[in-house]
Design a protein that fits this description.
- By secondary structure, the protein is an alpha+beta fold.
- It has two domains: about 5-235, P-loop containing nucleotide triphosphate hydrolases (Rossmann fold, 3-Layer(aba) Sandwich); about 240-360, Nucleic acid-binding proteins (OB fold (Dihydrolipoamide Acetyltransferase, E2P)), CATH 2.40.50.
- It has nine helices and 21 strands.
- It has helices spanning about 45-55, 95-105, 110-125, 140-155, 170-190, 200-205, 225-230, 235-240, 265-275; strands spanning about 5-15, 20-30, 35-40, 60-65, 70, 80-85, 160-165, 190-195, 210-215, 215-220, 245-250, 255, 260-265, 280-285, 290, 300-310, 315-320, 325-330, 340-345, 350-355, 360.
- The strands form four sheets. The protein has a six-stranded mixed β-sheet with strand order 6-7-8-3-9-10, sandwiched between helices. Strands 13-12-11-14-20-21 form a six-stranded antiparallel β-sheet.
- Helix 2 crosses helix 3 (about 110-125) and helix 2 (about 95-105) packs parallel to helix 4.
- The longest helix is centred in the middle third of the chain and has 18 residues, at about 170-190.
- It starts with a strand and ends in a 14-residue tail after the last strand.
- The relative contact order is 0.11.
Length: about 375
């Protein structure tokens, strides 16, 4: 078992001038064997949360339970938890073998033979058996990361905690290690909390993602739920690259009125919206903006200012009433800066947010189509 419960966690750091609230009333359940990703901008409280779970920070308020047993006040050595850090934290004077074995020697009663067998078995799993007699200084960044992961795996803990373990790797290796980590976690079936500021890592790795901002949980859900059904404007803007387009509009007489366009809403959406006239924020993802003809409903004529050919797609940037709008077009379409195009924003793909609170009033549903020929 490795069920982890975080109950109303609050962490306050005392400062000379004022207290700093790093985590505020965080409430999360992590199921046994689940891969949960904590994601958010720098300073949002994700690493502090991880350190509280590990016992490296004291909790100001709240409770942490592992398999229904409170561990809030237990020292780190008594928690069945292993942590992987951003900087690997390997002892430079020890070989990879000794680094992996060190924690077992310090915290268990295993014999030398049992420790050696665990290290060898884990090294084979991580494909680093040929590196065991080398020291960290003789290893590449990717190899050091594998040793650091192996050091955590040999402990066979109830929970893995990973604090941005791939951020020091180059882009190509980071992509490879993402896949390896996912395969490894599924093979071991160990509850894992993974911290990152990279929303691509969050979307591709997590069973669920918890999005934090200013110490508060903004949304907890599957990657697709958070992408298609964001709880608020912050989540909508943070998840997805390029970011969602936003327009400040006035809701009046069944339409969304912007400086550069008027967007007439259908009766169905007007009934669904059911809010008084006033300011709203309209959002739409770049891939949902379509090239249209001037005759299409709610189409707008714009001028392309910048293009970014990426191969499979081309990002085109246009000005819309003083605001930049990003389009994601097929890479086969050639479009030049300065070109004039007509764009449309399909009603079933727009998002609407309360202009004051940022809360979502309308989102695009995360509907899925059945994949024929795919066997579970």
């Amino acid at each position: 078992m490795g069920k982890l419960e975080i109950r109303h966690l609050r962490k306050v750091f005392e400062d000379d001038s004022r207290p700093i609230v790093a985590v505020d009333d965080l409430d999360i359940d992590v199921d046994d064997g689940e891969f949960l990703v904590l994601v958010g901008p720098s300073g949002c409280g994700k690493s502090t949360t991880l350190r509280c779970v590990a016992g490296l920070e004291t909790v100001s308020e709240g409770e942490i339970l592992l398999d229904d047993e409170p561990i809030t006040n237990q020292p780190p050595t008594e928690r069945d938890i292993a942590m992987v850090f951003q900087n690997y934290a390997l002892y430079p004077h020890m070989t990879a073998r000794d680094n992996m074995a060190f924690g077992l020697k310090m915290s268990t009663d295993l014999s030398k033979e049992e420790i050696a067998e665990r290290v060898e078995r884990t090294a084979r799993m991580m494909d680093i058996q040929d590196l065991l007699d080398k020291k960290p200084g003789d290893l590449s960044g990717g190899q050091q990361q594998r040793v650091a992961l192996g050091r955590a795996i040999v402990r066979e803990p109830e929970v893995f905690l990973m604090d941005e373990p791939l951020s020091n790797l180059d882009a190509k290796l980071r992509t490879t290690m993402r896949t390896e980590l996912q395969n490894l976690q599924q093979e071991l079936d160990i509850t894992t909390i993974y911290v990152t500021h990279d929303q691509t890592e969050a979307m591709t790795m997590g069973d669920r993602i918890a999005i934090l901002n200013d110490g508060e949980l903004q949304q907890l859900g599957t990657p697709l739920e958070c992408y298609y059904e964001p709880a608020n404007r912050f989540v909508a803007g943070f998840i997805g690259s390029p970011s969602m387009n936003f327009f400040d509009v006035e809701h009046a007489d069944g339409a969304l009125v912007h400086e550069a366009f008027r967007y007439d809403l259908s009766a169905e959406i007007r009934d669904e919206l059911s809010v008084a006239d006033g300011p709203l924020t309209m959002g739409i993802r770049p891939e949902d903006v379509e090239l249209a003809s001037p005759d299409d409903a709610n189409s707008v004529t714009v001028q392309v200012t910048v293009t970014e050919p990426m191969g499979d797609v081309t990002y085109a940037y246009v000005e819309l009433g003083g605001e930049t709008c990003t389009l994601c077009l097929s890479g086969e379409r050639i479009i030049q800066p300065g070109a004039t195009v007509d764009i449309a924003m399909p009603e079933n793909r727009i998002h609407l947010f309360d202009a004051e609170t940022g809360d979502a009033l309308k989102t695009r549903s995360a509907t899925r189509t059945e994949d024929h020929g795919v066997r579970a």
